[in-house]
Amino acid sequence: MDEIMNSRSQSQEVFERVWARVMGSAAPQTTAQPQPEPVSPPAPEAQPVMAAAPQRPHPAPPRPQPQPKTCCLRQQVLDSLEQWQLARLLSRRAGKQSRQMSNVAAQLHQQAKQLSAAYFLQSGVRYWPVAQLTAPRITTYVVGLRHLYQRNQALTQEFQTCRSKAGSPDLMQLYGQLAQEGVKRAALLRQLLEQTGM
Known about the structure:
The chain is built from five helices and no strands. The protein has helices spanning 2-23, 68-93, 98-123, 141-165, 169-195.
């Protein structure tokens, strides 16, 4: 009986060795021998994962937000351009007064340029809204001249008001100059109207 038991254990050992060679790994442990429990390596300490920030190009510097006085400048540029357009139309209908009306149109165009430059200095934005202009509607030369006179008066008054509220000496000087020119232009427009004989 001992021979049978020994032969079985020997044959088991031989089988395990042969099996290990065939499989290319260490011989499997017999059930008679206790198997050591596999020791798992210690878990690495959890470290906070830092998400890589996506590479972005440097943002453009923010555009300065227009202040209330620069908003007035935008409207004044547009008003000046609308008056310029009206004066150009009147110069084509003025007859003997066409040269004087052309001079008025040139003054208003220059005024719009000055206001646009002041707006650019204040805001960093170039504003020249020629595309927004619509063709002026006038029935007669005299009616158009009256309309131009009234708009000139209103804008000149606005320049005088803005001069006292301007935040910079340059803007105060510009408004003062434009107000003086507006007063002279109003006198000229009134004189042209008187010459028409109504």
